[in-house]
Design brief:
By secondary structure, the chain is of the alpha/beta class. The chain is 31% helix and 20% strand. The termini are close together. Homododecamer.
């Protein structure tokens, strides 16, 4: 059984409340339950932190033993050399995910420190972006 983890960065704990016109009205916890049901042949885990160092620690913890990492580093995507370096230093492939199309938003969101080290990038499909990322590991 494949072992995948979804790692979400800052403010994604507010999904369902934060800017529903961009991010929708469903909480990630509810959505994750749907993912677990839909992909019951995959061992799926979920982790979220608003703290950059905790995200790096989690990447290093799972980065040599899991089959895949789905990472939405949120705002850290555009600022964190450290997260980019952590991905470069692990063996587990990482798919970068964004709920919104970051290229249709503010200019600073067009830069990613994750993309150069990722297996692939999926953005702009709402929460469905996570489904697409999971499918990429099949």
């Amino acid at each position: 059984m494949k072992k995948l983890i979804i790692i979400n960065g800052p403010n994604l704990n507010l999904l369902g409340k934060r800017e529903p016109e961009i991010y929708g009205s469903q909480t990630f916890e509810d959505y994750f339950e749907n993912l677990e049901s839909k992909y019951n042949d995959i061992s799926l885990e979920y982790y979220q932190s608003n703290i950059e160092g905790e995200l790096i620690d989690k990447l290093q913890e799972v980065g040599f033993s899991y089959d895949g990492i789905i990472l939405n580093a949120a705002a850290y995507t555009h600022t964190s050399v450290g997260i980019g370096d952590a991905i470069k230093g692990i063996e587990t492939p990482v798919v970068e995910v964004h709920i919104s199309n970051t290229f249709s938003r503010e200019e600073f969101r067009h830069q990613s420190y994750i993309s150069p080290n990722a297996k692939g990038v999926i953005l702009g499909f709402g929460l469905k972006s996570y489904d697409l990322a999971i499918e990429s590991f099949n």
